[in-house]
TrEMBL record:
Boundaries of every Dickkopf-related protein 1/2/4 C-terminal subdomain domain copy: 49-78, 81-129
Primary location class: secreted
Protein name: Dickkopf WNT signaling pathway inhibitor 1
GO BP terms: canonical Wnt signaling pathway; cell morphogenesis; embryonic limb morphogenesis; endodermal cell differentiation; face morphogenesis; forebrain development; heart induction; mesoderm formation
Domain called Dickkopf N-terminal cysteine-rich: residue spans: 2-25
Source organism of this protein record: Ficedula albicollis (Collared flycatcher)
Subcellular localization(s) per the UniProt record: Secreted
Gene name linked to the record: DKK1
Family, similarity comment: Belongs to the dickkopf family.
Pfam family, one: DIKK1-2-4_C-subdom2
Keyword Disulfide bond: yes
GO MF entries: co-receptor binding; low-density lipoprotein particle receptor binding; receptor antagonist activity
Key word Transcription present: no
Length: 129
């Protein structure tokens, strides 16, 4: 037979539709499922900018997990023309207190050349390959 919906009389849970329980002789939404009988969707990483994180997969799209003082937070991935950190020595990464994210997909961290022959600042920016 047809299952009993919410607010219909019932004797036990088995008489009720999925996602509904028999409570006080009446069908009620099963707690925690919003009455839809569908479990909540798996957690999507939604660490927003500034949220504490452990790894970049904890952060929303377009963000990476980078050190900030003594914790790590989600920071925006660098866009074209933004200053980036060029790591000459592999070990230098651990010493940064303010880590920058890498350049976005399709961009490379390169020395900016527009400043004339003797560029004292040696600024690196994200540039197209």
């Amino acid at each position: 037979g047809a299952c009993r919906r919410r607010r219909k009389r019932c004797l036990r849970d088995a008489m009720c539709c999925p996602g509904t329980v028999c409570s006080n002789g009446e069908g009620r939404a099963r707690p925690g499922l919003g009455g839809l009988g569908v479990p909540p969707s798996p957690a999507v990483p939604t660490g927003q900018e500034g949220d504490i994180c452990l790894r970049s997969s904890d952060c929303a799209a377009g963000l990476c997990c980078a050190r900030h003082f003594w914790s790590k937070i989600c920071k925006p991935v660098l866009r074209e023309g933004q200053v980036c950190t060029r790591h000459r020595r592999k070990g230098a990464h651990g010493l940064e207190i303010f880590q920058r994210c890498p350049c976005a997909e399709g961009l490379a961290c390169r020395l900016q050349r527009e400043h004339g022959p003797a560029d004292a600042s040696r600024l690196h920016t994200c540039q197209r390959h």
